[in-house]
What we know:
- The complex is a heterodimer.
- Chain A has helices at residues 3-18, 21-44, 62-73, 84-87, 90-97, 109-115, 130-151, 172-202, 205-210, 216-246, 257-277, 281-298, 310-316, 320-334, 337-361; strands spanning 50-56, 77-82, 102-105, 122-124.
- By secondary structure, chain A is mainly alpha-helical.
- Chain A folds into two domains: 3-43 and 171-361, no CATH class; 50-151, abc type-2 transporter like fold.
- The longest helix of chain A is centred in the middle third of the chain and has 31 residues, at 172-202.
- The two termini of chain A are 24 Å apart.
- At the A-B interface, helix 1 and helix 9 of A face helix 2 and helix 3 of B.
Amino acid sequence: xxxxxxxxxxxxxxxxxxxxxxxxxxxxxxxxxxxxxxxxxxxxxxxxxxxxxxxxxxxxxxxxxxxxxxxxxxxxxxxxxxxxxxxxxxxxxxxxxxxxxxxxxxxxxxxxxxxxxxxxxxxxxxxxxxxxxxxxxxxxxxxxxxxxxxxxxxxxxxxxxxxxxxxxxxxxxxxxxxxxxxxxxxxxxxxxxxxxxxxxxxxxxxxxxxxxxxxxxxxxxxxxxxxxxxxxxxxxxxxxxxxxxxxxxxxxxxxxxxxxxxxxxxxxxxxxxxxxxxxxxxxxxxxxxxxxxxxxxxxxxxxxxxxxxxxxxxxxxxxxxxxxxxxxxxxxxxxxxxxxxxxxxxxxxxxxxxxxxxxxxxxxxxx
Amino acid sequence: xxxxxxxxxxxxxxxxxxxxxxxxxxxxxxxxxxxxxxxxxxxxxxxxxxxxxxxxxxxxxxxxxxxxxxxxxxxxxxxxxxxxxxxxxxxxxxxxxxxxxxxxxxxxxxxxxxxxxxxxxxxxxxxxxxxxxxxxxxxxxxxxxxxxxxxxxxxxxxxxxxxxxxxxxxxxxxxxxxxxxxxxxxxxxxxxxxxxxxxxxxxxxxxxxxxxxxxxxxxxxxxxxxxxxxxxxxxxxxxxxxxxxxxxxxxxxxxxxxxxxxxxxxxxxxxxxxxxxxxxxxxxxxxxxxxxxxxxxxxxxxxxxxxxxx
Lengths: 367, 310
């Protein structure tokens, strides 16, 4: 391994890369655009307000009015009282209204509360909208519990102080930044290396290089170093953009650096391996997409793995990008360096094996 | 003079097909050697074996005393190669490419001087993908020279180039020879081989069918010199009956074979004595291209006939 040859190849490759506006756009600008798009989406959902339409059939008893006021006071929902004579069939009206979170307080609610006799309020939710359904049901249940406790003469002694995991309360944008750094770690090297390895083979550039003292290992190492450098620049830009524009909370920790080294090592090697086994640039592109797309969507890049079904969760755990993103989440958000170390070890072992496999699989010259 | 390249009994098989089938030749140091053959004859396979890019099936090959396959890395420090249609990194510039190769080979080439040597100075800072075909080949030549090689392999270096670009490459090849380098040249252009090469070998169906200097090959395999004169068929009949010489006719042009230097005088005298009208006479020689087409054509016709016979 000759460092001067590696440096020379790195220089030629990086200058060529910088002169290609498409490569620069997809490596550096496109992830920022994604952060911008998702940032705008998430900033609108940062304080979700769910409107609950309430039909009070208890003729405005004090207890029913107090119940609705308490529900509105939770802050999780906004109660809008509907006149029963105007809406007619309440459930049908909710469906037509297109925003079907509703509450019916039955007649006799005040009397039942005063006499401590059982009685149900009715909640209408859209089962397809799990978030608003859960918030509505939970809020109504919480207020009902408080009323029951008060009617029974008790007083609450366990309070709840809401806080997020890690050092601060996180927004969705905070989780997106490690995910999109992972996205860049996989897409830039994978697509580029698959394309390079198959095109260089077709254009006989590998044969050209084989006639020089440059070795396969030196050539591949220079590509890995280039994509590590690109990942550093891209990660810095994403963290800066997310922090400045969307006020993302990211705890900068030196422990994230190994992921920025090992991630590109893994995916440059994987891209090289995929391109080497492909017969044509077209088939290499297909192989690259087959490998890359499931990882992009099922590793926690855009959607948290915790929201997946058990089967998808299991699948996510066999995707290498999952460990890269999970590791960066542990470092950047949760400060859980122990779990990050396990993630890093998994990626490092895989990257080392892939590097060796890529060196063996790709041929400078023909038999 | 020692041999820079020595090939004995070279065989390369792809399954049942013998692309190269027992080839022998040698290339003395400091000479330009042209390796000719029709498409699919085995030229490129042979060259790639010599360059160490392809493993041979059988035979002995030595380039500068080294086995190209097993000692490829050592050999590549001493040879330069320009493949057919030289390609390079699209966004790399010629001056950068020369510096890059200089680091790879551990030499310190001056890009300005190297580019001047191949007449590409005006494109030193142009991206490779903006160069014309001839300019790309010239950059290939410049890069092949970065290691100051003793042997250069040029695989159809002028294919697809315009006449001016071709002549530019020829000039560079002549300069390489004058510097004492050995040049192994494959080409489709027989004129190119005749102009540049000290030695020529013709390969067909994986076998060498002619080898030597261009004039040796023309003498051994071509037709004798001919006198060409425009005249009617009756003139051809007159010469055949009076001189007993082979005469061929083609659309009013007669070609009379000259077996000795005196035959030209005899034929001209006979033409004048015949009283038959004639005009425009001259002598014609076979070129390397004539011989090549004749030899390859005869072999192909023989094979077709052999396949047809039961």
